[in-house]
Amino acid sequence: MDENKDKIKEVEENGKKYTIQYFKGQKLDRNIPTKKIVLLGLTGVGKTTISYRLITDEFKQCSPTISLDLAGYKIKVNDKIIQIQIWDSCGNDEFAANTPNLFKNTFIGILVYEIVKKDSFNHIEKWKNLLLLYSHASFVYLIGNKADLENRQVETYEGEQYKDEHKFNVFMETSAKSGLNIDKLLNKIAIDVYESTKKEEEIEEIEKKNNGRISLTKEDLGNEDNEQSIKKKSCC
Asked: For residue 21, what are the β-bridge partners?
């Protein structure tokens, strides 16, 4: 067995079963569809350690990102190989506001705060506004990181309430250090990417049959949470 392949995981969501396999240590291939994920949040909330955990399944104490770091990995969901490219930004909203390419072609925006710092949670509103202003992200996740620490300042219900009020797709608390819910986050990303890619392929097939003309609603594709119009997206 290829040593760069992670173990195969069997996951079930909404009555559907998925076989997910992660590939370690492989460079991204331009010929394979790539989905872009942007991590946003104040400096120190753990964006880089989350990114490192997602890619390597290991914890590493990372220095704050100065401007922008890029990393990626391959996954195989059922019979489809897909690539994920993670854009890890510094925790400066002024930098983000003046770097529109940071948001270009974003598929998933992950907004991160740490549960022991209320200010990082209060700042989520700014990151959300920047993401919605500069991108057409199909999914938005809210992550409360450092859930292994005591003396929390942000309660779980506050994150859940914020997610519901702003119609985010996902809320969960994680710990990049202990690994809490990192697998859950990985699997959710994989499933959302897989289902979206399938739907894009369905659209392309319909377009071919109709000579490029297509008129579909969100309900036609079974994605009621996605408030964006149906668009084809590719990573830059």
From this structure: 8, 76
Reported as a single tens digit per residue, the pLDDT across 169-210 is: 999 999 999 999 999 999 999 999 999 999 998 988 888 888
The CATH code of the domain at 5-221 is 3.40.50.300
d(CA 144, CA 167): 16
CB 43 within 8 A of CB 93: no
Three-state DSSP string of 115-175: CCCHHHHHCHHHHHHHHHHHCCCCEEEEEEECCCCCCCCCCHHHHHHHHHHCCCCEEEECC
C-alpha dihedral over 32, 67, 130, 217, to 10 degrees? Answer: 0
Q: Is the pTM of this model over 0.85?
A: no
Domain-by-domain residue ranges, the chain?
5-221
d(CA 12, CA 28): 27
Distance CA 153, CA 115 (A): 6
Question: Which residue, chain included where needed, has tokens 């594709």?
Answer: 221
Could you report the average pLDDT of every consecutive run of 10 residues in the chain (236 residues)? Answer: 62 96 84 92 92 87 64 92 90 76 93 97 95 94 97 98 97 96 96 94 86 58 47 41
Please report, to the nearest 10 degrees, the dihedral formed by the alpha carbons of residues 181, 186, 190, 192 taken in order: 50
The answer to whether residues 67 and 16 touch, using CB atoms and an 8 Å cutoff, is: no
